[in-house]
Amino acid sequence: MRLLLLHADRFSYEIREPTKAAEDLGESPKSIGFAEVLVSFTSVEESDSAAMADGVAREIANVAAQVRAERVVLYPYAHLSSELAAPKAAVEVLRAVGDALTRRGVDVHRAPFGWYKAFEIRCKGHPLSELSRELHPEALAPPAPPGEGERYVILLPDGQERSPEQLDGLPDAFRAMVEKEALKRDLPSREEPGYLRLCRKFGIAWEEMSDIGHMAYEPKGTLLFDLVSDYSTQVVQSLGLSLFLMRGTNMFNLKEDAVREHAELFGDRLYKVEHENRSFVMRYAACHQQFAIMRRWNISYRHLPLGAFEVADSYRLEQSGETSLLFRVRRLNMPDLHVLCRDLREANEWFGRLHRRILEEALPYGVDYEMLINLSGANAYAQNRELILGLLRERNRPALLHFYPEGRNYYWTVNIEYVMLDEGRRPREIGTVQIDTGNAERFGIEYVDEQGGRKHPIILHTAIIGSVERYLYMAFEAAVQAEAQGRKAALPLWLVPEQVRLLTVGSEHLPLASALADLLEANGFRVGVDDRNESVPKKVREAQQDWVGMMIVLGDRELKGGPLRVYDRSVDREVEHRPESLLAELSKRTEGFPKRSLSFPREVSRRVVFASS
After folding, report:
1. Residue 39: is its pLDDT beyond 90?
2. Which of 146, 185, 231, 393 lies 20 to 30 Å (CA to CA) from residue 543?
3. Share of the chain above pLDDT 90, in %
4. Same domain, 513 and 472
């Protein structure tokens, strides 16, 4: 199904002549007009069915809520697709979508199908007033009902258990997570999230020439992406594990028993490819590739614990109406670490270490995670209750337990999702850690124990910083929330694309700027030089708009050897430095973080205007 969604001051249409497929008008008026309306021009395609109605209605209702439209007009429009459904089927789908919108409390009018109509529209022209959507049946199929026995429980650090409705006295952020996950009360989004403004600033956007949910990065966004990817590798290298880096394919044959079984246990959102009468699954993490490699290794108990790591391009068939930049995408990049352990004792020890590192990595952004703990059943809870309580007592914080239905042969026992609140007080999952007791046997991964016997290791899965995309999401959210609290919004100095920009007053100051830029670059810092024949106020304004970490104006005073006046965005004030002290400050602030060169020219005069600018 294809939608063109226009938010209009007014919209009217007049029915003219019927086609052979004309729907009976009944008591419908021949002409009608609306004000403050969202018009959904809708093409129903061959593969569409009424089973999609709830998903389509959800998508339209979400947009209506975002633009604050008072009503919706569902308008049949054949010109958005060349693969149209038969008229009878199209009418059935449109009626079902209209009914689903009504059930959601939306004031909806459905224009009749199969008539030539004249219409007039005045579109509002704001950033969300013109949107298009391509909705696929497989992504909008109604979810399978939860299995018998699926339930949620609040666990307190003292071991008490509560129902999700008993929220009195619990922290606000935790309450928000419980309401979304257990009580299904997620807040509707009525305004564009603030982090999307930063996506535009740094050149991160949907790729319109690809499938839904796939992103493109302009040069600044590319630099951010690469830095976070590098950082994720540094984090796992600092854990003290014997670490093995890998790289592999992103497509696996579903005829392989281990691949098929793992995919079936993973559940929904599988991204599949059909080719030459074979079915392949796009990997949803680095699991398949790492397991396929490790099954060929000769591993001794002396090697354990060991870690395998890849920043893996991963694929989830997210519902098209629920995709969101950085947070929910169809192609993500997962810094995926697997830790092989000899037994549950060793696995529990490393589980705790990974848990603490996940919490630690969020603190620089002011994020103190809540925990959603998924359990494969009551037995998994009984076996791991003391481990879980130990984690809760360390922080003196509750957790929400999610019990999956009993009876399935899950490959995992405990999975923790680490949840932050966004600016709209909505819970968002970032990091994760999981105990896997089944895949070593499934994929044939073994080690030789002290007695010479062969055993299957316990495998821990973790994304310590979350996906690359979600780490950027967290950094952007922190900046947006700082701004909302009256502080200067900034990225950490190691992450900001342009760490220093030198602004020349005149052409006679260019040699000084070049020499200082060379010095900073030789020490691994990203430096831009605004060498244009523009006024200093304009250069300063544009450096501010670009979120440059440090800005230095170079004039006659500096040319004569005077101290550098450095505007530091992180503290929102000007400080004085000599080149040596500036280098020391930059080194101190970026110590332990990755370094990358600029992904665009040093001289501002040589830069093209990016689409995000």
Report:
1. yes
2. 231
3. 78
4. no
286 and 310 Cβ atoms separated by less than 8 Å: yes
Q: What is the DSSP string of 400-425?
A: EEEEPPTTS--SEEEEEEEEEE-TTS
State the number of CA atoms in the 13 A half-sphere of 83 facing the CB.
8
Question: 304 in helix, strand or coil?
Answer: coil
Residues 451, 347, single domain; the answer is yes
For position 533, what pLDDT does the model report? 95
505 lies in a domain?
Answer: yes
> Quick check: 6 and 38 in contact, CB under 8 A?
yes
Whether 374 contacts 402, CB under 8 Å: yes
Assess whether 427 and 537 both reside in one domain: no
Residue 401 sits in a domain whose CATH number is 3.30.930.10
Residue 342 lies in a domain: yes
Q: What is the DSSP secondary-structure string of 233-250? A: HHHHHTT-SEEEE----S
The rounded distance, in Å, linking the Cα atoms of 483 and 166 is 34
pLDDT attached to residue 492: 97
Burial class (CB in 10 A: 0-12, 13-18, 19+), 278: exposed
DSSP of 246-297: ----SEEETTSHHHHHHHHHH-S---EEEETTEEEEE-SSSHHHHHHHHTTS
CB within 8 A of 581, min separation 6: which ones? none
pTM of the complete model: 0.77
Q: Integer distance in angstroms from the first to the last C-alpha of the chain?
A: 33
Burial zone of 84 (CB within 10 Å; 0-12 exposed, 13-18 middle, 19+ buried): middle
Domain presence at residue 272: no
Pairwise CA distance, residues 486 & 490, whole Å: 12
Task: Please choose, from the candidates 73, 5, 78, 7, the residue with its C-alpha nearest in 3D space to the C-alpha of residue 46.
Answer: 78
Same-domain pairing of 313 and 395: yes
Q: Are 37 and 128 in a shared domain? A: yes
CA distance 294 to 303: 13
